[in-house]
Write a structure and sequence with these properties.
By secondary structure, the protein is an alpha+beta fold. The chain has two domains: 3-28 and 355-589, no CATH class; 40-351, Beta-galactosidase, Chain A, domain 5, CATH 2.70.98. The chain has helices at 3-26, 325-328, 357-373, 377-391, 393-408, 410-419, 424-438, 447-451, 453-465, 505-518, 529-548, 554-603, and strands at residues 40-41, 69-72, 81-84, 88-93, 98-109, 112-115, 129-131, 144-148, 151-160, 172-180, 187-196, 204-215, 233-238, 243-244, 252-255, 259-265, 269-275, 281-288, 296-307, 311-322, 487-495, 499-503. Strands 2, 8, 9, 10, 11, 13, 14, 16, 17 and 20 form a ten-stranded antiparallel beta sheet that branches. The chain has a five-stranded antiparallel beta sheet with strand order 1-3-4-5-6, with no helix packed on it. Strand 8 (144-148) and strand 9 (151-160) form a beta hairpin. The radius of gyration is 33 Å and the shape is elongated. The chain crosses the membrane at residues 374-392, 443-463, 536-560. Residues 377-576 form the Membrane insertase YidC/Oxa/ALB C-terminal domain. Keywords: Cell inner membrane, Cell membrane, Chaperone, Membrane, Protein transport, Transmembrane, Transmembrane helix, Transport. It is found in: Cell inner membrane.
Amino acid sequence: MDKKTILAVVLSVIVISVGMSIQMMLTPPAAQETPVSEVVPVAEPLEEPAIHMISSTDQAWDTGLPGSFIAIGDNPSRSPFIFENEEFIITFDPVGASVSSIKLKKHLDGKEPVEMLFRSPSDHNAFLLYAGGDRTRPLDTVFSYSVSGNEVTFTRNFAVVGEDGRALPGHFTLTKRFRFGGAGEYLFEIKVGATNSENKAVPLSFDNNAYTLAFEPQIGPAFEKLDNYNYRRLYIRNDGGKRTQPKLSNGIYQTTAGISWTAVVGKYFSVIAIPDATRYTTTLAERSDENSTVPQTSSIYLTRPAVRSASFEDTFLFYIGPQLKQNMDIYNKADSNSFQLSELHLEQVLDTSSWLGWLETILKGVLQLFYKVIPNYGVAIILLTLLTRVLMHPLNKKSMASTARMSALSPQMDELRKKYADNPQKLNEATAALYRKEKINPLGGCLPMLLQFPIMIALYGLLNKHFELRGAMFIPGWIPDLSVPDTVLTFSFNLPFLGNQLHILPILYATSMIFSMKLNPSSSGAAGSQASTMKFMMYGMPLILFFTLYNAPSGLLLYWSSVNLISMLQQKFTNKKTVLASAEKDKDAAKTLSFPVNKGKKKK
């Protein structure tokens, strides 16, 4: 969970809890064979441009300057085609030997497979090559391709342009090969290589760099805006095994240090790039454009040092799939995946509440257990909330009892404040003496609340990003997906601070919070500045949290609303019990007082 979000929630609860306490004081699987891939043409061939070149001078593709490259040979078809296996539906584009679409068959976005490439028609495809370290002009030559089993291979011959602007004798072959794993594997391999036909050094050098392999522009699913509940984060795992979130300068982070992998991470899906042992320059880039259909891009660039050999082949691995540990940790043991990979530790991209990760795991197990009994995650969330409140009832009971006892001291506190209005020190001493006499701990109502924070934070982290909540329906027609806000109406205009969508759960949450606080004994009987403080606590805090959580996932708000409703029932029960106990106490006191009076009358 985002640290800022955790801090905001914790501070909000602390403000409420401590504020109430102060007020009381003042006014008391195994790898399988991949099936044969299916190739389906999806576009008609178009006319192939005559030449495409790489310039060693200014990185332009079509200058014809000496030292640049020219594609030679027959013009291949530029029609995109589809490769499909058990996990992916991938649209390959011969132009640049690139990929224009990656869909995950087992994960849906609505009724369709989720699209992992979020791009506009004008954006570049994924896995294009760039000259040297340049990231503006991709190699858009059309490649020949072949498909065999789980491999897709692209090739094209290039010649070097001489001083007279013509192709020199001989050529080199540039190859890009994609290889996919078995069932249940979301990781695949990309090999980029070149071989010189005359056994001479392949002249790939542009400012001491050979080429850049890019993943761009953004990972899916598509979004309109990013926030704490729908985000894209960039991570790097260094050679020492530590995961960090790099700091970008003007939207760019660049390092020549060795890395294990780098990733673009969303709440439910991620793209992880794993280079080989070559010392690449790693560049991470973010760019925002409110006028684009892709509001923010998050890209990875791996730049290879210059090549000075007759042939070379570089290996890159890419994980493009769900944020699920079971799909990632299979690459920690060689016998668990078809690539024989080990110790990649891709699961480190998963976001948890760090020190509370173990508690999230326990609560997740209980949530899934409830789901097995009643296959509705909304019901499972309510049952989990009820269970946690039952387990925390002793603490809640102690807190409520302390609140009630503090509230009962309001008349004495009012007298002390009047008596020592001009002497704060005496007032504090008299207040402390009153607490000692009544055996009351002024923090008794606050400490139990603080002890509940670990469970509250762990549940917040779990319900904010639990993968199985994606597309999980609670109530048809109202909450069809617990991982997103419960949009019941979309306006043609924007509401201030809220946007153009109407959500019901935030309203229910804020309303239930107000009623829950109204039932608290400390909310009545206050006067003066204390009354103003209580009024803010009762109405101001729910209003602040209403705006803070307005776009929160439905599952998270369902939990918070359930907490408020259960707290209301507990508080009503405690208040009723306190009233009955007080009445019984007054009745006993009245009997004690009346006994000697009656006895005296009899003597007369």
